[in-house]
Amino acid sequence: SGTDQILQVYWGTEHGLKTLKTPTCILFNQKQQFRKFGYDDVMKYKSLPPSEADNWYFFQNFKMKLYNTTKVTSGMELKASNGKTLPALMVFSESLHYLREHALNTIQEASFQTVCNQEISWVITIPAIWSAAARQFMRLAAREAGLASDMISEKLIIALEREVASLWCKQL
């Protein structure tokens, strides 16, 4: 039709919530396999018996670890709520992979058309306070998640949150 449409997504509706943002939480099972993200993750983790929860890997608010860590590397680890660790790259890339799949499914449901990854330019927003190493880490995680075929892909844009917010305000 030539007009741009904005598809508004609400998170947590299946749990009686309706928010524009999902919590930055991810859950891996005892075998270090991705299980849940966001509200689904929180609800699943809270439903686990304490004895079983100790064997799972629950990460929340992990995004700021890239700011609070003095030396960001591709081999760094993140500590789960129970003290167990997993590679940070695995935690971030699985999160991005989940969000990628969620976006593709949402677009397909809204448009009744299948959209392939190559048709999309992905924009990942990050805090301006992050180091160059943290920005590069996000690019690597995005590649691992399937958002880009290589580290210099034109289909992947790492943008500063404040600049994106400014552009959105200008658009409004």
TrEMBL record:
Protein name in the entry: Heat shock 70 kDa protein 12B
Record bears the keyword Transcription regulation: no
Chain's gene name: HSPA12B_0
Xref: Gene3D superfamilies: 3.30.420.40
Entry keyword Cytoplasm: no
Swiss-Prot/TrEMBL keywords: Stress response
Highest taxon of the lineage: Eukaryota
